[in-house]
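Below is how a single chain appears once it has passed through the pipeline. First comes the sequence as given, then the structure the pipeline wrote out for it. We keep one example in the README because the format questions we get most often are answered faster by looking than by reading.
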Amino acid sequence: MGRMSARQLVRTALVVVAAGLLVTSPAPGQQAIDKAASEIFGTVMSPFCPGMTIATCPSSQAAELRDEIRAKLAAGATKDEVLDELYAEWGEEVLGPRSATGMGLLAWLVPALAIVVGAAGLTMWLRVSSSRVRTAGSSGESIDPKAELRLREELARL
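Resulting structure:
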């Protein structure tokens, strides 16, 4: 065997690297499965670790659940079907951040709007009420002189 030229050595190295990339890169179908799995893992709350998603939960049960989800996706289930199954099995607590769109946003906006409207209504009511009190006190009506005399006598006794 003779020595390889630099050019042949570079070609061989490129072929080896390309073959390695082809072997290690996932198939296009696998990429879709990995993408759907990552989306599910990042949005579904873990039933085993309160306050954590499936992606961040370190428990072995969460690891098993991640494997089950990948298997369902590989078997042809859609992301929505898997989410529906998770909801059916674990209930609303797994939906977590997924509900931050749509109805979840309303859950924040409606109370805030109610507070603003309530504060505005209360302010208007207080203004109207206080103006009525001022007008009633300054109506210019005089008290009966006998009643005023009696009132002064009663106050003097106290």
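The radius of gyration is 37 Å.

See the next section for the split statistics.
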